[in-house]
Specification:
The protein contains 4 helices and 3 strands; from the N terminus they run βααββαα. The chain is of the alpha+beta class.
């Protein structure tokens, strides 16, 4: 494991990353005190088995129902009564302000 100061780390970041890719760990210090560590990224490439949480998670029946107007308005930084002024009715769909309603043909 090698220790470098912040200035050296900024100056030689590409070289330090190459060393880390080779399996080495690099400690970055400020005024001689370690503050960060560069370590190789480990990736688990094995596929995860599907269905391991089956029966352990429940989704409420109203999960995708429209939000109450006061909560939805807070997402856009407006008062509940201003929601239709900010997003005209043609953009409102089931209560969602950003879902554009498709026009029916005919």
């Amino acid at each position: 494991m090698v220790t470098v100061n912040i200035h050296e780390a900024k100056t030689n970041l590409s070289r330090l990353v190459e060393r880390v890719e080779g399996g080495e760990e690099v400690v970055i210090a400020r005024s001689g005190k370690p503050v960060a560590k560069l370590v190789p990224l480990t990736r688990d490439l094995a596929p995860r088995p599907l269905g391991t949480m089956r029966g352990l998670i429940e989704m409420a029946n109203d999960f995708d129902d429209p939000l109450p107007p006061d909560i939805e308005a807070s997402f856009y930084g407006v008062a509940p009564g201003e929601l239709n002024e900010v997003f005209p009715r043609k953009y409102l769909s089931r209560g969602g302000a950003m879902k554009k309603v498709k026009k029916r043909k005919g």
